[in-house]
Amino acid sequence: MSVPADHLVPYLSAVELAVLGVYAVHPDLTDAMVDSAYEELVRRYRAEATNYPFTPGKLDGLRAEVHDAALRGLTLRLSQPGDHPGPEELRLAVGRLRSSVKTWTRAGGRQGYLHFLEREIGDLSVDDEE
Q1: Count of alpha carbons within 13 Å of 32, Cβ hemisphere only?
Q2: Residue 66 CB contacts under 8 Å (≥ 6 apart), including other chains
Q3: Are 123 and 25 in contact (CB under 8 A)?
């Protein structure tokens, strides 16, 4: 998988940190649940990019919690001053995250992606108040 454009990294990081936050509270979270939440985000940004009304899917439990946390992270990031990617770029970026879920699930099992996130960026989500 290629490296995302530099300007998308903060948005992807916001999503992944949100996922890690949910995983920290719910260690039973699986990659499939994360993928479902990402799929809903892709649907949301596809609708926005095409000016089509978005109809939320039927996410439940942890899927909904991951989706809502990721959406909050993205919304917060998009509310900051400056230039931001449009809905089509966000759709493609979240689509890249879905590809990553598939790759790491194949490599590491039902929580392979989550373990990958812990290993690669987990330290960023821990409060260092020492």
Answers
A1: 5
A2: 18, 19, 22, 29, 33, 34, 36, 37
A3: no
Local structure of 5: helix, strand or coil: coil
Q: pLDDT tens across 5-51, in order?
A: 788 999 999 999 999 999 999 999 999 999 999 999 999 999 999 99
DSSP-assigned states of every residue in 17-78: HHHHHHHHH-TT--HHHHHHHHHHHHHHHHHHHTT---------HHHHHHHHHHHHHHHHHH
**Cα distances (Å, whole numbers) of residue 67 to 1, 6, 44, 103, 110:** 23, 23, 11, 20, 18
* pTM across the whole model: 0.87
User: What is the model's pLDDT at position 56?
Assistant: 87
All structural domains of the chain with their residue ranges: 6-124
What is the rounded radius of gyration, in angstroms, for the C-alpha atoms of the chain?
Answer: 14
Length of the chain: 130
Of 16, 23, 7, nearest in space to 38 by CA = 16
